[in-house]
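Now for a chain:

_____
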Amino acid sequence: MKTGVLLQARIGSTRLPGKALLPLAGCTVLEHVLAAAKQIKTDIHVLVTDHRSMELFRPYTLAAGFELFEGPADDVLARYCIAAEFYQVDRVVRATGDNPLVSAKLANKNLVMHASHRADLSRFKGAPLGTGVEVVETWALQESAMRSADPYEHEHITTYMLRRQDEYRVVELDVAEQYLFPEGSVTLDTEADYRHLSAIFSDLYRGNPISIEELIVWLRKNRPAIPGREG
């Protein structure tokens, strides 16, 4: 059983153009994502992107010890399936390039949960948005791609399975209480998100990925100051 982190990112973004390469505490957003995702315990780590982004991302991925793979720009599900087949990955940890506070600790716990429940798709509930990943079997992604003609299901790659939980073993469990903060959000989609993340990294970043424990403490302490999400 070969498992891989497949991290999706591309330079194109309608709401926040070029967000993957925005500066954040002396690095780019992408560098923070790569550093955190590299701590997820899998056999291989791959950044899956499109042609336009390849050369822009190449130096960061190589420095982080990631493989770099080019796939379709507008069909993320196909991009994942092609990459998984190329690297002969049986199980995928899906992470996204707009989450610089993705938690390797939660991801590694998710991998254990996924295996113990013999899940087709698994994820935690209740952690701050942007800290989690999904673990999914490659065959299920490939089946989704073959069966679905819905563009939304090809952009959000586990939606096909989530809509058909009578056909797939989907495991969604609450995180442990110390990681529980469902009202928190640390994903990057808007200028407000960027300001929010900049404040977090200014306070907490010391050269290594920020731990989920430190983040939860900060979010709880600064709850009144968290900006409202836009759009």
In short: The chain has one domain: 3-225. The chain is about 40% helix and 15% strand. The longest helix spans residues 51-64.
